[in-house]
């Protein structure tokens, strides 16, 4: 599996109704995309306006097929040429009710040099199990050894469940909260 995300920070006066309408129209087009486990159409209005879809692919060939195809070209024409982040999952649980996700938390942090990676992975697995016990519909924990980062995506049924779960990751962790406009999950 491979996790992927790109994002666009939109101007402060951008009408987010445009993003929500685009998600409503384009979202269902990937509901049957081969090789896609899921795509969460993430967007937020605060602290800044963003559109930042998150993908979980069965393999890199499926991801490349999307990035090389017309759907991604359409995104790039609409919003610009993004930097695409990828991670190999240390953990990926996708529950049967994933399509009910309406809220997401995404945390990322830099791994300290010479960190005990096996221990860190066990800590992240424990976090994933805790999130699932608190009602998470999906948990993906990604590891990226080029920039030594770790990322967590947790999908929730509602904001109350997501807000109740602590998201602390590491010193200097970046925490983002999103609404889920649509969830394509052909591989779930």
UniProtKB/TrEMBL annotation:
Pfam family, one: DUF4865
Matching InterPro entries: DUF4865
Name of the protein described by the UniProt record: DUF4865 family protein
